Amino acid sequence: MKKILVLITFLISLTANAQQQKVIESIKKIGNVINAINNYYVDTVNISNLTEKAVISMLDNLDPHSVYISKEEFQAMNEPLTGSFEGIGIEFTLMEDTLVVVMPVSGGPSEKVGIATGDKIVAVDGQNIAGVNITTDRIYKLLRGKKGTKVMIDIVRKNVGNVLQFEVIRDKIPINSVDAAYEVRPGLAYLKLGRFALTSLDEIIIAFSKFKTNPEALILDLRGNGGGIMGTAIRLADQFLEKGKTIVYTSGTNLPDNIDLSTDNGIFKKGKLVVLVNESSASASEIVSGAVQDWDRGIVIGRRTYGKGLMQHQLPIGDGSYIRLTVARYHTPTGRVIQRPYEKGNKAKYTQDFYDRYITGEVYDSEKINFPDSLKYKTLVKGRTVYGGGGIMPDIFIPQDTSAYTQYYARLVNRGIVNKFVLNYISQNSEMLKAKYTEFESFAKNFFIDDSFIEQLVTFAEAENLPRNDDELNTSLSELKIMLKARCARDLWGTSEFYKIINANSDKEFAKAIEVIDNWEKYEKEIFEQQ
């Protein structure tokens, strides 16, 4: 037996050494090519750019989620995940080549000195930025900077004749990952998480502490949440599961297998739980919804999720740039791999496969979704059937409703016309609106978008080179009115109020969640007792 173990150890060592030798030879080969180009090529070559393209090409031949990230991209991509940046603290938009403040960040340096919604920033540190085709990147460079540094802002404000000057001291600005958190009614809370960031769980705990009543039911909205930090997903799932339950486990060729278990900690271990998902819910969102579903802890509503079950590590490669490299696959508690199929080196097809869901009609009809029997699993408490290999299939499917969507409506929203129009409206009428509607509840009940408001929008859109289309306008009218009211609420109060309007008036998944919670025993029996 000892001889066999020695032989096995020797063979493993030989294999490892042979693989390492191949790596050394490959590095030498690439170095020789770069050296030859640098020394002998007929024209001058930017070696750094050439090397970058070679790295991108190598990663393109792996899975769809292994990518190269430049130094600039790395900083921009990680700000939303780390939860903060350093700057003056405003949300802004560019209107007619002028920077307009959409909203100062609550408690941020701009709000502290008196900068307000609708203010037009015309100069920064004496440098004119109005009417000069300034870009968003240039604005970031001017307004962001190290905490404690000063910047002078020149502002034009409605009904004020002279230019106002504000000295703003830059500070750390939080980037919230909780888009909305509110009580639908006493005992029922709604929480929308936009991404899984380092600060997400702290934000959620703070939101819970502000609820007037202790929630007995929770709607967790992960629609459109493309993921983020895996550790945050594990910590969030831990809030819902009793101690000792597998949340997720990972396995990879070069990493040891790892199992993450739930703990005693948690703010919602018991109570009715509904998770909302759709085709854009990915990665960390699928870890949470998969754990909830596998342990029969709650009811998942919506449409089949994206299907990303690969775990990446960000690895520095020397010059401030990184590679995001897939290092493992993750499995839901039942053992499901929810990564949808892909061909190595064919990222275009992988992207197209996602959009094919609309072409085949699966987002409108669950019968058009096929899961092979070979990927069938049983949940861990009730033993009902779930599937792997292509995202999380919700317990209750809600088809996408496009009946009110037209090209005219899409262009109004996607070209930023609705945003600009509402910002103009709020800028001119905020004092009147705040005086008339001192509380959001009064606004929600008594503020209406009338025909005159719509006509003003259409005229504004025509000035933005979007021709009037009465047929499509009539088709989208009800949806457009809800969107306009929600945008007004957002600019007057915040994002929670935006979602309060949307959810209460036009959101079918949200409406179904309320129905399920109000008839919990019925749906629990229908869903959890299926085999």
What does it look like?
With 531 residues, this protein is α+β, with helices and mostly antiparallel strands. The chain has four domains: 8-45; 84-174, Pdz3 Domain; 178-400, 2-enoyl-CoA Hydratase, Chain A, domain 1, CATH 3.90.226; 407-493, no CATH class. Helices cover 43% and strands 21% of the residues. The protein contains 17 helices and 21 strands. The protein has helices at residues 2-40, 47-60, 71-82, 109-113, 136-143, 200-210, 230-238, 284-294, 347-360, 407-414, 417-436, 440-446, 451-463, 470-492, 495-506, 508-518, 520-528; strands at residues 67-69, 84-87, 90-95, 98-104, 120-124, 127-128, 150-156, 164-169, 171-174, 178-185, 188-193, 217-221, 246-252, 255-261, 272-277, 299-302, 310-316, 322-331, 376-378, 385-387, 396-397. The strands form five sheets. Strands 3, 4, 5, 6, 7 and 8 form a six-stranded antiparallel β-sheet that branches. The chain has a six-stranded mixed β-sheet with strand order 10-11-12-15-16-21, sandwiched between helices. A hairpin with a 2-residue loop joins strand 3 and strand 4 (98-104). The radius of gyration is 27 Å and the shape is globular.
